[in-house]
Amino acid sequence: MLQIFIRFFSLGLISFGGPAAHIGYFRQAFVQELAWLDDKRYASFVALSQFMPGPGSSQVGFAIGYHRGGLLGGLAAFIGFTLPSFILLFLFAVTSTQLLDYPVTQGIIHGLKLLAVVVVADAVWIMFNQFCKRKPAILLMLFSVAVILLFPGIWIQFALLILAAVVGRQWLSSTATPAEPTKQRIKLNYLWLSIFALLFVGSTFIVSENISASESGLVSLFSQFYQVGSLVFGGGHVVLPLLQASVGDAMSNDQFLTGYALAQAVPGPMFALAAYLGAEIWIEQPLVGALVATVAIFLPGFLLMLVALKSWHALSARPHITGAIAGVNACVVGFLLAALYNPIFSSAVKDNLDMALVVIGFGLFKVLKPNIFYLVLSFAVAGAVTELI
User: Fold this and answer.
1) What are the Cα distances from residue 142, in Å, to 136, 172, 336?
2) Where do transmembrane segments lie in this chain (predicted)?
């Protein structure tokens, strides 16, 4: 367990670049260097993480830890990989009030908000090209953008996800006949499925009461983040619109975007943003709030991985299931595009200079493909300089 923890902790310290980069780091470390598993097994973990809601790269890491050391191994992998970003974002949350008194700090944060525009725009670009190749998928994406911009809210998003799954099942199912589809038996772990379902139903009931976490306690805080973790397909930046819809009432747009911008500047999983948000919401005991929010947002994805780790081949052979997932993926591209406009772009870009920095940054990001660390540093410096002058 200690070996698993140390290996993932060391990766958590240096893993900039988002889920795609994390998956590359994992393959290099655990397939090529350590030979804990082969390429075929690793590819199956990656495929399953794309199939399930939750934080994709963290689910792959959890699966590797589970493969190596059972359930405790999976937990050791999760804690090790997430701990560096958790600590950094928690410290940012508890010191942000004092730090924001300095103009340089305000400039750095503004620069990181502009970087968030670049990063999310790139994510929309990539995900559109990946998930919106067919006309029904494009129409689903456009419809979800329009609805979310007109009627923002987590329940609207939930309804759109269900609609997208139905449309995808009907019009986005693979036309190819899978090999031996009826001979592959699906063996799900119903214990973990029951735990996931009970927590999801309970969290949905609590969230439906429309009581903020600051008023009703840690149960409500857990419920809000658990529900978000249950509904996020695609991981990474896709968590942004659901989080904003879920906890946006508990803090200002500026606070929320500051946390998101800071999450760009630290290594590790994007879902660790929950540490910052939990600490900001539960100000009486920020460490408790950060821990509850972080556990809640990661837990659904891990429970679903445990449900289906032994059945992913059979699940992926069902055309209607893959069609439903294709519809959901197209829908979340729309969610992300709507979030790119509001609150990210509308809150970050204030004048022509900001827009110029975004355009230049996006061009550099797409053409030169610099290391994300250098991009973070560049935008932080640019923000500080523009604030001082």
Assistant:
1) 10, 16, 11
2) 71-95, 107-128, 140-168, 188-207, 219-240, 260-279, 286-309, 321-344, 356-385
pLDDT at 317: 67
User: Per the structure block, which two tokens stand in for 314?
Assistant: 């059979």
What are the strands, taking DSSP E only, across the chain? none
Q: Which residue has the higher pLDDT, 375 or 223?
A: 223
49-97 pLDDT per residue, tens: 867 788 888 999 999 999 999 999 999 999 999 999 999 999 989 887 6
DSSP H or E run through 48: helix 39-51
Q: CA 70, 72, 73 angle in degrees (round to 5)? A: 65
Closest CA to 332 of 195, 207, 248, 228: 228
Instruction: Give the model confidence (pLDDT) of 132-154 as tens digits.
Output: 999 999 999 999 999 989 988 76
Domain hosting 349: range is 2-388
Q: Sign (positive/negative) of CA torsion 214, 217, 222, 223?
A: negative
Three-state SS sequence of 54-95: CCHHHHHHHHHHHHHHHHHHHHHHHHHHHHHHHHHHHHHHHH
Q: What is the DSSP string of 332-373?
A: HHHHHHHHIIIIIIHHH--SHHHHHHHHHHHHHHHHT---HH
DSSP state of 235: -
Nearest to 336 by CA among 269, 232, 237, 254: 237
Q: 121 and 364 in contact (C-beta within 8 Å)? A: no
Question: What tokens appear for 325 in the block?
Answer: 């997932």
Rounded CA separation 85/281 (Å):
18
- Taking each helix axis from N to C end, the angle separating 218-231 and 273-281, rounded to the nearest 10 degrees, works out to 150
pLDDT in tens, 200-257: 999 888 877 655 544 558 898 999 999 989 988 766 667 777 787 777 677 877 788 8
Number of domains in the chain: 1
> Per the structure block, which two tokens stand in for 364?
């550099």
